[in-house]
Description:
There is one protein chain. By secondary structure, this protein is an alpha/beta fold. It is 60% helix and 9% strand. The strands form 3 sheets. A 6-stranded mixed sheet has the order 8-9-10-5-11-12, with helices on both faces. It has a 4-stranded antiparallel sheet with strand order 4-3-6-7, covered by helices on one side.
Amino acid sequence: MVQVGAATPPLRRGRAAPSLLRFAGWMLQVDPARGALVLALRIVQGASPAATVWLSARVFAEGQAVWAGRAAAAAMLGWLGAWGAVGLLEVALWPLFELASNAVIHDMEDAATARLQAKAGVLRLEAYERPDFHDILRRAREACDPGMMLNLVWNTTDLPQNAVTLLAVGGLVGHWSPTLLPAVVVAALPQPISEIVQARARHFRGRKQTADERLRGYYGTLLSNPGAAKEVRTFDLQAWCLARWRGLFWKVADEIHRQERAQTLARAGLNTVTLLGYAAGLAVAARGLAAGDLPAARFAALLLALRSVQGAAEGIAMSLLGWGGELLLKVGDLFAYLDLGPEEPAGGARPDPSGDIVLEGVGFTYPGKATPALQGVSCVLRSGERVALVGENGSGKTTLVKLLCGLYRPTEGRVLYGGRDMAELHPQALRDLQAAVFQDHVRYAFTLGENIGLGRAEQVADRETVRRAAELGGADAVAASLPQGYATPLTREFEGGTDLSGGQWQRIAVSRGFMRQAPLVVLDEPTASLDPRAEAEVFRSFAQLAGGGGQAAGPNRDATAGGDAGSGPVTAVLVSHRLGSARLCDRVLVLEGGRLVEQGRHDELVAAGGPYARLWAVQSQWYR
C-alpha cells in the first residue's frame, strides 16, 4: 500500500498489463457467472473468423469444381450452408454478449463507485492535507465516469477474442502461404505502435495537467457558486476570475493542440508504411498464385484472412497498449487511489467511556510541512472536566482537537484514552464516544430534523431526541420560525426548501453535536456567528454538560462498535477566542506556537500575568 505522507514520491508511470489483469480479476470477482460468460462468448467470437476463412476456401474450391464440371452443385451448397451457419452463429451470439456485458458493466460501475466512496471512509484524514492526494482523487473519479466501465469491460474482453483470431487465422495464413504471414504482421505493426506511443503521451499529459484542471474548475466554481456570488459581485471579480479561467483553459488547450498536431503527422506517415507493407504481401501471394504454388481458392480466402489478421494484431496492440491501454492506465489511477494509505485500523480495543484522556509529548506535523503544528504537548483531561483551549490563530487549537478526536494520529508522542493508546483502539468505537462541533461545520441539504439527527444517524427518526438536542443547541427557535418546522428542507436547490443565516446554521451544528450524547464533547468556535443571547444559551448548555452526567442516556450500541455514554460524566472541551467563556471551565489550556505554555483556572492565569493574562487584558478592555 502506498503511504501518503511527507516523503511520498510521485506516482510512477503506469503500466497497462498489470491493470488489465487486475481489472479482469476484479470483473470475475464482482460478477463471476456473467463475467465468465462474457469471456467465453468473446473466445467463441474470436474463433469464428478462422472458421469463416477456411469454409470460404472450401466454398471457392467447390465452386471452381462445379464450374469446371468436376463436381455436383450439391457439394458446394453443403459447404455454403456451413459457411452461412457460422455467420448466423456470430449474429446470434452478439445480442447474448450485449445482454451479459451490460449486466457486468452495471455491476462494475456500482462496485467502482462503492469502492471509491468506501476508500474515503477508511483513509486517515492526514491524506487530505496533501495536494498530490487531490490530483490522485480527481483521476480516480474520472476512472469511474459514466461510460468508462463499458469501454473497459469491452476492451478487456476484446483481448482474448483478438488473440484467438490472430492465432487461428494466422495459423491458416502461415500454413497456406508461409511468406505472406510475416509481411502481414509487420505491415500491421506501425499503426498500433503509433497508437501505443500516442495513447501513453495523452495519458501522462493529462496527469501533468490535473492540477491546472482542478484550479480552472475552482475559478469556474467561483463564477457560478451562489455562496461566492455576493463577494464576486461586490468586489467586481467576474472579469478577474474569468481571465484566470481562460488563461488556464488555453494553457491546457495549447498543449493538447501541439500534441495532436504531431500525432496526426505521425499517423499519416505510418499509414503509408502500412499500405506499402500490404501491397508487398499481396504481391508475394500473387506470385505464388501465378507460379501454381497457391491454389486460386486459397488465394481468394487469403484476401479475407488478411483483414482478419491485421484487425486482430491491431486489436491486441490497441487493447493492451493503444486506446485500450489508455483506458487501462486510467483504471490504473483508480487502483492507485484504492491502494493509498495510511488507512484507519480495521479493529482494535474498546475504549473506556469514563476514563481520563492523557496526552504524552504529543506533536503533529502536517504532510509536506517542515514546521510542526504541535509539539511536546502533555496534559491530562480528567473525566467530567470542562476544559477551555485558547490561543491566537495558528497556535494549534484545532489541530489538537482533531488529535483528541482521533481524526489525526500524532507524529510524535501519544494520546491515551482510559490508559490505552489511541492507536490501539477501534476507530468506530472511539468516534462513538465523541461529539464534535467544528467551526467549518457542514450545511446538509436535508431537512432541519435530519440536519440535527445526523449527530446520531441511527436515531435520526427519533423526534423526541431530535427536539431535545435542538433545545440544548438553540435550534428549537429555528424550527419555530420555519413553515414546516423540523420537516423544512434547508436548501433552495429543491422545491419547498429555504436557506438560513450563518447564526441559525451554527445553532443547528451545535444541536447536532448535542444529539450525539457522548462522554466527550468538543466545541470548536461554536458561537462565532451567534448573537450575544444565543451565545449565552449555548454556553449555559455547555456549562451544564460536564461533571454530573449531562445529557440523557445514550442509545444501546453494538459491542464491536464502542462504548455507551450512558448517564456517566461528560468531559467537555471548548475552543473559543472569546475568553469570557473560559470562566465557565474548570481549567484553561493556553497554546502558543504549537506548545502548551500555561494551564490553570481563569483567575489563576489572570493573576499569573502570563500569555493568558495578556490576551485577557487586550480583549476585556472593550467591555470596561
